[in-house]
Design brief:
Layout: H1 2-15, H2 19-25, H3 33-50, H4 54-65, H5 70-73, H6 75-90, H7 93-111, H8 135-147, H9 152-164, H10 168-173, H11 176-180, E1 190-194, E2 207-211, H12 213-228, H13 253-266, H14 271-274, H15 287-298, H16 308-315, H17 321-326, H18 332-346, H19 358-383, H20 391-408
Antiparallel strand pairs: 1-2
Helix pairs in contact: 1-3, 2-7, 3-7, 6-7, 8-13, 9-12, 9-15
């Protein structure tokens, strides 16, 4: 028994030599020596189960979290669930609970995200929140999300984010005039002003972008709703306000919460995917909209891409390189024309092209000709009756011509 205790002590000392364990033990949440000893004991059980040291276990977890395959991301969690069930059966529920607590604490300290052990995510077929391939399928996906927006205000903001790509802080700082100035004077694309977000001088990068007709219609509907509720709708008023009180929103968390709720209501992701144990690891956030706009603007597979330096102008990014910062200065007209080429892919609610049916075209032509022959042609003949040569007159002219010809011969 004494030898076993000495072996356990040596194993704990060996664990303390790993960087991941040192980082874990320095956390403020582990402030009891008894908790430290217990957690090290269960970490040893965990490493023996996986057959690797703590640093390698953390590396595996980080690699799995970066996978797009959902089953691969759940690999370590499924293994811990299996070990938990085995320990609960052999050693009791208390020890199984301590194992899970130690594992969650260890991965939280080293990866920033806890393991989701107690609430396993159901298997889903479409776990990826974006689609690859043809633009129509990608647009169908986002149309479904926008249609399930909690409020009309959120739907309008989602379309602005998807088509112009402003930062969440810029969206909160927008005024009504920033978005609506060109609605009555220009056709799509409409130029919008993007104010600089944040208070840090390094982040104060504003500029302008463009939106299409579907975003304009949603914004106008949202502003009309504000008028019916008695809220002010002046050009200098903030665009984003609370739908109940009319007060400006100050935190981007409201935008992210609305977007996550849209994903849930649309049924494209499960609750545990949208709200993981550490919500900072959620794939659903305002950055998705901004990244979507940038990806489409830069994609030139169909010849509608925008020059990278010009994309930086439209997204208020820092210019890429000295050449871009000092020499690449596109005008508003050039940016508008470039955006117009990519607008059909940026637009969410674009109208589908009608399917051409040759039989229907032939039937429509026949109907048009039938109407022309039965109605319009007699009317035209009646108007020009005096200019029409009758059959008898034509026969007389031919007889005279024939007589003249015979005499000439």
């Amino acid at each position: 028994m004494k030898r076993n205790s000495e072996d356990a002590a040596r194993e704990k000392e060996a664990l303390l030599q790993f960087e991941s364990v040192k980082r874990w033990m320095s956390c403020e949440t582990i402030n009891s020596s008894r908790t430290r000893q217990a957690y090290l004991k269960y970490l040893q059980i965990l490493t023996d189960h996986f057959g690797c040291d703590p640093d390698e276990l953390v590396a595996q977890r980080i690699e799995d979290m970066a996978q797009r395959d959902f089953t691969r991301r759940q690999r370590i969690e499924e293994s811990v669930r299996t070990l938990k069930a085995k320990m609960a059966k052999e050693d009791g529920e208390t020890k199984a609970f301590m194992l899970v607590a130690a594992a969650c604490s260890f991965f939280k300290a080293n990866t920033g995200a806890r393991l989701n052990i107690n609430n396993p995510t159901p298997e889903v077929k479409n776990e990826v929140w974006t689609f690859e391939g043809e633009p129509s399928r990608e647009q169908d996906f986002w149309r479904n999300v926008v249609d399930h927006a909690p409020t009309l205000r959120d739907a309008a903001l989602f379309l602005i984010g998807l088509e112009a790509g402003p930062r969440d802080g810029s969206a909160l700082a927008m005024t009504i005039g920033d978005v609506t100035n060109e609605f009555n004077t220009n056709t799509a694309p409409y130029r919008i002003r993007i104010p600089p977000p944040g208070e840090s001088p390094s982040k104060k990068r504003g500029g302008h972008g463009f939106i299409a007709d579907d975003a304009r219609k949603k914004v106008e509907s949202y502003l009309a709703l504000r008028r019916t509720r008695g809220f002010s709708v002046e050009l200098t008023d903030p665009l984003v306000v609370d739908v109940d009180t009319g007060r400006p929103l100050r935190s981007a968390d409201a935008l992210n919460d609305a977007l996550r709720q849209s994903f849930l209501d649309a049924g494209v992701l499960s609750h545990d995917q949208v709200y993981p144990p550490d919500v900072r690891m959620s794939p659903v956030r305002w950055y998705c909209l901004r990244k979507r706009a940038q990806t489409i603007m830069e994609d030139n597979t169909d010849g509608t891409g925008i020059a990278l330096n010009w994309v930086d102008e439209l997204l208020s990014h820092r210019k890429r390189g000295a050449q871009a910062g000092h020499y690449s200065k596109p005008t508003v007209q050039q940016l508008r024309a470039a955006y117009a080429k990519a607008m059909h892919r940026l637009t969410i609610f674009r109208e589908a092209k009608p399917q051409v049916n040759q039989d229907q075209i032939d039937l429509a032509v026949q109907r048009a000709l039938r109407g022309l022959i039965s109605e319009r042609l007699p009317q035209e003949l009646e108007k020009t009756r005096s200019q029409i040569v009758t059959v008898k007159e034509l026969a007389r002219i031919l007889r005279e011509l024939t007589t003249v010809s015979q005499r000439a011969e």
